[in-house]
């Protein structure tokens, strides 16, 4: 019994060591990913329409109109308001909405388009990308499908930073217009998820991950 007990304790200590090592490694990876993406966006984010340079197209990153509990999604509202402000200030000529439309009854691009039109944005100035299932897909498709080499990303600042980093890695000159953020309590889950999403950026880039769908080119004009 004594030998078995010492044997079990030995393996338990080794197991705890590897768990702690994995946790520490994960923290380092997430920290470095977050720091790299944040620093890369310095000087490329704008909060005022008066100061942001003009681009032909704004890439409005999609999100759901409602939360899972049925309440209005403030990320949706603030992103749409930011895109409308850019267009009305003549800082972009077109708005490309890229979002998820992968299941019945859920259509981020169309919902955002309807909200923009209700704000007075001409329907003919809005283009939709229904295959923007995640930020990487939205960015790469902006180049490969819509032939964009420069754009203004519209989302909350933390999301803009990640999109800009990805855009530059795929040869797109990008700046970000920061939509109003939600309060820290409401956005806590999203912020936590963002840390892991930033770490995944480097995994996807190292593996050369491509969008789920590509397709024929669409000319924005």
From TrEMBL:
Domain of life: Bacteria
DUF218 domain sequence ranges: 58-195
InterPro entries found in the cross-reference section: Cell_Envelope_Assoc (IPR051599), DUF218 (IPR003848)
Name recorded for this polypeptide: ElyC/SanA/YdcF family protein
Source organism of the structure: Capnocytophaga gingivalis
């Amino acid at each position: 019994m004594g030998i078995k007990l010492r044997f079990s304790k030995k393996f338990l200590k080794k197991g705890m060591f590897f768990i702690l090592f994995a946790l520490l490694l994960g923290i380092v990876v997430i920290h470095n990913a977050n720091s790299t993406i944040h620093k890369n966006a310095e000087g490329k984010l704008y909060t005022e329409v008066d100061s942001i340079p003009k681009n032909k197209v704004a890439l409005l990153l999609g999100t759901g109109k409602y939360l899972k509990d049925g309440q209005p999604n403030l990320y949706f509202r603030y992103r749409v308001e930011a895109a409308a402000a850019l267009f009305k200030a003549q800082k972009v000529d077109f708005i490309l909405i890229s979002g998820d439309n992968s299941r019945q009854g859920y259509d981020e691009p169309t919902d955002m388009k309807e909200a923009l039109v209700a704000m007075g944005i001409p329907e003919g100035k809005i283009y939709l990308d229904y295959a923007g299932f995640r930020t990487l897909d939205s960015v790469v498709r902006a180049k490969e499908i819509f032939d964009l080499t420069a754009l203004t990303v519209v989302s909350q600042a933390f999301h803009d930073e990640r999109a800009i980093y990805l855009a530059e890695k795929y040869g797109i000159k990008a700046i970000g217009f920061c939509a109003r953020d939600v309060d820290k309590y409401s956005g806590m889950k999203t912020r936590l998820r963002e840390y892991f999403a930033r770490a995944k950026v480097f995994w996807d880039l190292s593996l050369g991950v491509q969008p789920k769908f590509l397709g024929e080119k669409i000319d924005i004009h």
